[in-house]
Amino acid sequence: DLRKQARQLENELDLKLVSFSKLCTSYSSTRDGRRDRYSSDTTPLLNGSSQDRMFETMAVEIEQLLGKLTGINDKMAEYTNSAGVPSLNAALMHTLQRHRDILQDYTHEFHKTKANFLAIRERENLLGSVRKDIESYKSGSGVNNRRTELFLKEHEHLRNSDRLIEETISIAMATKENMTSQRGMLKSIQSKMNTLANRFPAVNSLIQRINLRKRRDSLILGAIIGICTILLLLYAFH
């Protein structure tokens, strides 16, 4: 029952984290599109509060699911430590460790995505404030000269370059994490292979000892049969 509950929570967490990641990814582009659509100051800066509320709601839901999954793992740990399951203790500990690893991965992914979202929101708010100051300066002065346009174009180019660099860094970090996980898997496989290689010599020596004992028993049995046959022949001739 605890494993079923843990799997249900893990499936819910997986779906929630996918939606949470999509929300964080689309946040910056949505804010950019909104600012391009409304270039004047008639629209409040906090028009993206719906996404912010959605982010807060999803973060609270994911934290609650993580808390429930942590409680289920603690209950499974208590069950494995109980006195009634000594023979299945190794298998249960393996299952418990697997669920703990899944919980740790989900927790790490949630905190990383949340931190990225907060960083993007802070940067977007800062850029929005700068853009608002620039546009207020333009509207206040009433001059659309060539220098201001060039400055705005350069600002857009710099922001696009910054976005591309951040996407490249995120891809590199994801690749690094995948390589690290693969290296851990290869290390575990290597340790298992070393354990099996260390066990085979002991098995071979045991088989050799068994063969030697069988051969010795065969020789002893043959000698006894031969002696008994000789004694019977001597008795028959006398």
Automatic annotation (TrEMBL):
<keyword id="KW-0333">Golgi apparatus</keyword>
<dbReference type="GO" id="GO:0006888">
    <property type="term" value="P:endoplasmic reticulum to Golgi vesicle-mediated transport"/>
</dbReference>
<dbReference type="GO" id="GO:0005797">
    <property type="term" value="C:Golgi medial cisterna"/>
</dbReference>
<feature type="transmembrane region" description="Helical">
    <location>
        <begin position="219"/>
        <end position="237"/>
    </location>
</feature>
<comment type="function">
    <text>Involved in transport from the ER to the Golgi apparatus as well as in intra-Golgi transport. It belongs to a super-family of proteins called t-SNAREs or soluble NSF (N-ethylmaleimide-sensitive factor) attachment protein receptor. May play a protective role against hydrogen peroxide induced cytotoxicity under glutathione depleted conditions in neuronal cells by regulating the intracellular ROS levels via inhibition of p38 MAPK (MAPK11, MAPK12, MAPK13 and MAPK14). Participates in docking and fusion stage of ER to cis-Golgi transport.</text>
</comment>
<dbReference type="GO" id="GO:0048219">
    <property type="term" value="P:inter-Golgi cisterna vesicle-mediated transport"/>
</dbReference>
<comment type="similarity">
    <text>Belongs to the GOSR1 family.</text>
</comment>
<dbReference type="InterPro" id="IPR023601">
    <property type="entry name" value="Golgi_SNAP_su1"/>
</dbReference>
<keyword id="KW-0813">Transport</keyword>
<dbReference type="GO" id="GO:0005801">
    <property type="term" value="C:cis-Golgi network"/>
</dbReference>
<dbReference type="GO" id="GO:0031201">
    <property type="term" value="C:SNARE complex"/>
</dbReference>
<dbReference type="GO" id="GO:0006906">
    <property type="term" value="P:vesicle fusion"/>
</dbReference>
<dbReference type="GO" id="GO:0000139">
    <property type="term" value="C:Golgi membrane"/>
</dbReference>
<keyword id="KW-1133">Transmembrane helix</keyword>
<dbReference type="Pfam" id="PF12352">
    <property type="entry name" value="V-SNARE_C"/>
</dbReference>
<keyword id="KW-0812">Transmembrane</keyword>
<keyword id="KW-0653">Protein transport</keyword>
<dbReference type="GO" id="GO:0015031">
    <property type="term" value="P:protein transport"/>
</dbReference>
<keyword id="KW-0472">Membrane</keyword>
<dbReference type="GO" id="GO:0005484">
    <property type="term" value="F:SNAP receptor activity"/>
</dbReference>
<protein>
    <recommendedName>
        <fullName>Golgi SNAP receptor complex member 1</fullName>
    </recommendedName>
</protein>
